[in-house]
Design goal:
Blueprint lengths: L18 E5 L4 H11 L5 E4 L10 H10 L3 E4 L1 H9 L3 H11 L3 E4 L8 H11 L4 E6 L10 H14 L3 E4 L18 H10 L5 E4 L3 H11 L5 E5 L3 H8 L19
Parallel strand pairs: 1-2, 1-8, 2-3, 4-5, 5-6, 6-7, 7-8
Helix pairs in contact: 1-2, 5-6, 8-9
Length: about 260
């Protein structure tokens, strides 16, 4: 069906309007079925937290994602575990052996100094597409809006392709209050001063996703999307749900 006037979505090898899913152990055969139908709606696949290290059929899963032109990568917690045990060189070698070309540099669990993260990005950006994450997984840790802006800008200037705003898979930390509400003032300030095409907003529930679609536009970059919610998200982006019903091309705030 192609007779409705809907917000124009980016397609193909997108550089924005990204949907980044979180894979928390989807069995290989089930994943094949999901990607057979919905792969065109997915751009990036994160194997959540450190789960990639114990994922059965890891190589096959990576190859499956790549077959559908989806970029697989491992969660930032695995990066932090390797950093904590001084195993970053081994980690990088493993990624290359597996054919992974995306890497997340985060400090959601550890307090890794900003300069150390920037130095590491400078070293690895020639071999990987680097995604940095800003924000803590600890809901009791608060960052000033100015610090959010400063870190995001420094990561982009250092050569990161994208920066993720921490939200956890629960939507209760980072850019969210403990009760799951979005920190609206923070988001408003971020998209005012920074190119939102370079930010991936972690939004693990349809409610969170609708917020960013309405605030940023149909082609907002959204992360931590459950594989089972991919179709729901795409329908929301296209104004095909009550909460985004009146979203029109003129309201797609990211210029095409």
């Amino acid at each position: 069906m192609e007779f409705l006037e809907l917000p124009k979505r980016t397609t193909g090898n997108r550089t924005y309007g990204l949907t980044s899913v979180i894979d928390l152990g989807t069995p290989l055969e089930e994943l094949k079925s999901i990607l057979n139908d919905y792969s065109s709606m997915i751009d990036i696949a994160k194997m959540g937290f450190g789960s990639a290290y114990v994922t059965p059929n890891l190589k096959e899963k990576i190859e499956l994602y790549k077959r559908y032109n989806i970029h697989p990568y491992f969660g930032g917690t695995l990066f932090e575990k390797c950093y904590h045990q001084n195993k970053i060189p081994e980690y990088l070698m493993s990624l290359q052996d597996l054919g992974i070309d995306y890497i997340e540099v985060s400090n959601g669990t550890l307090n890794i100094p900003l300069q150390e993260r920037l130095d590491l990005i400078a070293q690895i950006k020639k071999d990987f597409c680097v995604i940095a994450e800003v924000g803590s997984k600890d809901s009791n840790k608060e960052m000033a809006i100015s610090q959010w802006k400063d870190e995001i800008k420094q990561f982009l200037e250092a050569g990161c392709q994208y920066v993720i705003t921490e939200g956890r898979d629960s939507g209760t930390a980072g850019i969210y209050e403990k009760n799951g509400n979005v920190k609206g003032n923070l988001i408003s300030e971020l998209i005012k001063d920074i190119d939102s095409k370079k930010i991936i907003f972690e939004a693990p529930t349809p409610k969170h996703q609708m917020y960013f679609i309405k605030e940023v536009g149909a082609n907002v970059n959204v992360g931590n999307v459950k594989l089972t919610d991919v179709l729901v998200l795409e329908a929301q982006r296209c104004g095909l749900r009550s909460e985004t019903f009146y979203l029109e091309d003129s309201e797609c705030k990211l210029p095409l």
